[in-house]
Amino acid sequence: MPNLEDLIAEHEPEEIFTDVEDSDPTIVIYTSGTTALPKGVVLTHLGMSVYVTNTVEPADPRAENVDVLLVSVPFYHVAGATTMLSSVWGGRKMVVLPQFDPGAWLEAVQTHRVTHSFVVPTMLKRIMEHPDFEKTDLSSLKLVAYGAAPMPYEVVTRAVQVFQCGLMNAYGQTESTSSLTFLGPEDHQIPEGASEERERKMQRLRSVGRPMEDVAVMIMDPEGNILPPGQEGEIVAQGARVMAGYLGRGEETSEAMRGGWLHTGDVGWMDDDGYLYITGRTKDLIIRGGENIAPGEIEGVLQQHPAVEDAAVIGVPDVEWGEEVKAIVVPKGARPSPEDLTSFVKRHLASYKAPKYYEFVDDLPRNYLGKVLKTELRKQYGQPG
Known about the structure:
By secondary structure, the protein is α/β, with parallel strands linked by helices. It has eleven helices and 19 strands. The chain has helices at 4-9, 45-55, 78-90, 102-112, 121-129, 153-162, 196-204, 250-256, 295-302, 338-348, 374-381; strands at 25-30, 40-44, 68-71, 93-96, 116-119, 143-147, 166-173, 178-183, 210-211, 215-220, 233-239, 245-246, 262-270, 276-281, 286-288, 291-293, 308-318, 322-331, 357-360. The longest helix is centred in the N-terminal third of the chain and has 13 residues, at 78-90. The chain is globular, with a radius of gyration of 22 Å.
């Protein structure tokens, strides 16, 4: 079977480039569709080029040792597409898993001496839980990046303890040509002993880091005002990597890009140092008696309960309050009582945010990247009781 060098040697060089404008479409990638039907996101040559050249150094043909990237996400996802192009630009060797399996991931790292990998939080959790994790040689790893879904606090704190390489959290979306913010390796280096710096860094593990240099990220209220640190609102972004629009959906493009900002649909706040904390999705907000409740913060508390493996929170109709909070819980072993869970939530959050209703299930519906499908949960559990 001929290899790449043979194929190149058999053909004369041909001019294959054509003139394109920065604003011309380069690829259409569909959203994951966790809250609605998937939309085709039109990304531009400029946006993709800016991302690739800003995140990876160009390849050095004289280098003897090249980085090896393990690809665990599909190429039809924006993280997969940008990873592939960045690897080509950086001259990295790519190892591609046909589908994710924690045992296969561990074997690939050891066999191919993988230096870099991107995983989603569910993948990282399963990797650390695999029986071969502690006996696999992971010494080649330089960086494990994670993102594309919320990271449970207990998972990232364990990763900090057991991985002997850099860790990085990346937050973004298809509409922004991948990452908007990142929590770098230095933010994952937690000093020993009790100190203010340790407490500050432990708190920052709950964040998704600070904006990348080529984008502006702000918090905005419903009237379009930029909010100061500490106040919660919608996360908005500007920059060369923002999409050209949704394919064939002019009205939805105008809505998403109103005021010249990309409205991400995510809710969050920034601290005084510019670290971004995500609390939920605007479409997932529960409005109880006029109070906005972000499901994400309730989920984060429930996931810290020792008897809870996983949890998701939705709003259900209520005659008195308009909406009430309902939690769908995956127990860890014996099923906890609703009273115990409610008491636990009230110790960490305002009492009105505690779930009124609970459903106990074996698993939560997720898409291929591990994101919980709230639409499916609402269909099945979207009524009181």
